Amino acid sequence: MALALFALALLGSGAQAAASYNSTLAWVPFSQTQFDGNAALDTDGANGDVQLFWTLGDEYSTYGIASKSSGYLAVGFSQTGAMTGADMAVGYTDQNGTFMFENRHATGFIVPEISQDQTKNMRFKQGYQANGVTAFIFDKKNQADCLLDQGNVAIDSFQWMIYAHSDQNTFAQHAAGDMGKQYVKLGTSNAISLDIARTTNNSQNFTVVSPEVVIPTDETTYCYSMHKMPTTANRSYLIGERPPKASPLLHHLVLYACYGPADQFESMLGQPADCNWQNFSNPCNGFVTEWAPGMSARTFEDGFGKPFGADLYQYAMLETHYNNPGGTANQTDAASYEFIYTDSPVATEIGTLTLGDMQVNGWFMDPGKPLVAHSTICTPECTSKWPAEGITAVAVFHHMHYRGVNARVQIIRNGTEIAPLSELYDFQYGYQFSKALSNIQLLPGDQLITTCEYDTMNDTTPVAGGQSSRDEMCFAWVDYYPLNNVLGCTQINPHLADPSQQNGTVAMCLDSSNPNPDLYPSKSLTADFQHLPVSGNNCSGNALSKPNGAAILSTCPDTDVCYSVSVPRKEPTSASGDIYFQLSAPTTYSWVALAQGTAMSNANMFVMYASADGKNVTLSPRNAPGHQMPTHNAAADVVLLEGSGIANGKMTANVLCKNCSSWSTGKMDFQDIVSQWVYAHLQGLPINSDDLNTAISHHDKSGGFQWDLSQATGGPDANPFLAGVANTTSSSSTAGGQMQTPMMQAHGALASIAFVAIFPIGAVLVRLASFPGLAWVHGGLQIFSYVVFIAAAGLGIYLARQDSYLNQPHAIIGMLLFGVLSFMPILGTIHHNIFKQVKKRTAWSYAHIFTGRTAILLGMVNGGLGLKLVNAGRPYIIAYGVSAGMMGVVFIGVIVFGEVTQKKDTSGVPTSPITGPGESKGQEGSGSESDARS
């Protein structure tokens, strides 16, 4: 789901001013006066159709959301304005008219998953749906307990709020336009970056425009052009900026301030852009601004401005990076950036400090890792140049490339880590922005550690840091006040730039008063420091800190059915094969099962149901060699642990399995980052049996998911599910979707071959070709394709029965096609024999032709429905969509061509040799009969 970019709706004199009753919002069904703040989330200004209200608290804050829609309504707390990582509240009414509230978490641009915690992170208060309005009120915890499936809220600054709504109460993808995002100021901090460009009475505009360049066909190109700032005073101030539409090949642009004598830059003015980037040395090192995908306009708050002018810098270098992996030729661009500035003095002069890997090249990351960290240090020797009272950070722009996941800047003061300068989780390359901060003070002598974390799972070779978009970067540009001379602070290896220099890491401090950076050794580059004690966020995505307790991964494929797993720390060096897992569900379920494997067949299965007395649970280890009722597996070595039983309407089984690392038909590595699991359950009356082999009815729902067991390892060899023993975290794996097993992949491949290849080729051939025996070739191809489809249908029906998919549209359409196509050879034979006699189409002809055409197109569409049903990965969807789309266009084009030709034939107008009636009657299967076949 792609979210559109929206401008920030400014909230008067401040978001914390009490929200008085607004008569234009009389449609909102709850009292507005109970809230302190209000903002329209959609684009209709203060009186928009999606309204957010809030009142901030110390631990929990209360939110109200209302929309002029009659279906589900969702509001999310997002780190970046994207769906990925968003902590979402969803409200809707069920089929009985009861208002339902859910806390969900989005792991990507997919349907958000139900969160395991439905009571602590978010607390539902009231809901309403009537008269074309949906609204609800809820509490949200300010600081999350688990950042893997929850989110912190920036109550003292700006917070990205996303929303979606529908006129249907089934939670699914919204219609185009029924969503959006806003950067809302919940707190009262003096943040300076706002995503809108505002002019003032004494402001002016100027635009930096690069000379037009022909973009090279090289994958990576950097171009540089020099520009003079509009210096009408010794000191003017940038107060806002507005990026124009960019070339689709523009990866980013940066404007650098050029400090130093003016004559060294004047010679570059008015010259063509220099795109010989590998031999170009940029003489400008001050950071002014950058554009990257996702960034919109922004304005500094009133009283703030970035100074430039005769006593600072008068020239700026524009750097444009073009990414052209496809080698597109003959593309031109004249990149530009518009600024709003004023000559009037401002109350607060702000500057930008560059942190991160300023050397860019020379570092590598291991491939095939879910999270790899890269850090650089800004040392106390450089920060000691700040004013004695320190500086105040008000915004930070984190920048990485496509593999980026998380970013942060830590502050080390006197050897101890204090609250971080910034943390950004779930980075999205297409949603970059300047993150507002709540006036964080930095003092001379502070040490700053900038860390970027990347996902290299799709890489098979080491990932390099570099300027190409296929490489990676790690930057953090910090806006602060008051302005001082320190431009950048990091560490480098001089040998990488100049082999004659010593090979080793040194600190670097970049000062606007010195054209050369200051390089020096520093003990801070290797010094240890004391971390703050971990408080909450025990399942944070921070790979550099892991709790000491047992690690538990949990996933809930349904709101009330949850599964958890934990591997004791000794397991990697032990041969015992111990693993702990938990099944949890309400007593309204007849049975619930969890299994190791990719499908029920040959899986290592564990079924939980109520015991004979109804006070405890029975755990039955089972297996099934095929599609039949699983039977008791006596070889399983399992123990039902303390905490198991039935209480408060809930069944729980805490289980120790001593031989789950292998079973008769499979095995599992307890350090596997992609371990395969399946689940199933049946709602209904309790079984109430102690028999481990009691009969169970067919499930009403099943599915599969993956667990990264390396993240579930830790803690002592003890029951991890008892209170106080473990740190429970939520899995970020996809739950509830059917895993693509080899059998399922075979079903999809065979059906695709039939409907995207052989069927349409046979139909196209009879329309375009003309040779003796064409009818037999056509019939043979179609019969062969039907045989392939029979194999696909057999696999599909087996899988649909196994996973309760027989009532899904994909299965229904598939069985309909299976039945209809069985009659096509008969229709084709009758059509062929009659046509040879009467030499024109009959009712049998039309039945054969149009049934065949409809079936082929419906089969192509049904393939897409199948991919959606199993939550197929994006590469599969793209590959099928392109193949089916291209074949569909060709197929429809040939149909239209053939029908036009057929009409010309019957009207006596001469036709082309391949379709006209000019062939002899002895050429069976050619001539005008070919115009009558599908």
TrEMBL record:
Protein known as: DOMON domain-containing protein
Keyword Iron (UniProt): no
InterPro entries the record matches: Cellobiose_DH-like_cyt, Cu2_ascorb_mOase-like_C, Cu2_ascorb_mOase_N, Cu2_ascorb_mOase_N_sf, Cu2_monoox_C, Cyt_b561/ferric_Rdtase_TM, DOH_DOMON, DOMON_domain
Keyword line: Disulfide bond, Electron transport, Glycoprotein, Membrane, Signal, Transmembrane, Transmembrane helix, Transport
Signal peptide: 1-17
GO annotation, cellular component aspect: membrane
Domain (Cytochrome b561): residue spans on this chain: 709-903
Entry's localization field: Membrane
